[in-house]
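Kindly inspect what follows.
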Amino acid sequence: MPATPPRTHGTPVRRRRGFAAVALVAAAVAAVCLLAALHPWTDAAAPVTATAEESTSGVIAPRPLALPDQPRVLIFGDSWTYGSAASLPTLGYAYVLGERLDWQSTVDGVRGSGYLKPGLDGGTYGERIAALDPGLDPDLIIVEGSINDRRLPAEGYREAVSAAWDALAALYPAASVVIMGPAPQVLPVEEATARIDADLAALAAERGWWYVSPIAEEWITTENYTEVIDTTIGRYHPSTAGHAYLATRLAEAIAAMGDEAPVIADAPHEGPSTP
């Protein structure tokens, strides 16, 4: 199948709004500590207790997210970002999120892609970042996933992530970055997927980037699994309703990164209820 180029979607302004850039450093550090506490599956070091100002801690508190009206947003990821298993790819979570928040969004999702694993329609995350348009100039970048590296050795994974993120930061130095970890396609969460989640969380904390963990926040549970994940023809990807649900959860997470929640437009396709 030929490569699918990134798709850009924008909607008219319905209402002026933004994120207030006010938050407490202590709260951000506490959030990192909570994330570590919610990862019983990893043998990570002891929970972070140092303040963000202590350079030896390896943790930098992320700055409150402040976006202009109708921000330019790049949503980058794998098949979940592509919109796989939705009745139309443009009903995937990334497109729904952009519509609801009136973003000028560019969606770049490649099926099967990961930091180490090349995708079906493109390369690894690092290779794809190298091919991005330097003129895109996003205000915000959301990097989703990926579970696609779970069957590859852990050796070299962190190095591949760091190299990809270094390239992304160099390409778009003015952009805010939110990392969205892998969401479980099966339950219980696979050990390798949990390891990827923990690695990404730690690396994001070192950079002071916001991190969203669908695993730690239990977006997908035994109670809503069959509503969110299409285990038949969708091959363990979110259904159309599941994509809408993920868009809602991600919008809520992003709103919490600022002091003022954005106005979220009513969606024509609602997902499962928040657990």
About this structure: The chain has eight helices and eight strands. Residues 1-5, 7-56, 260-275 have pLDDT under 50 and may be disordered.
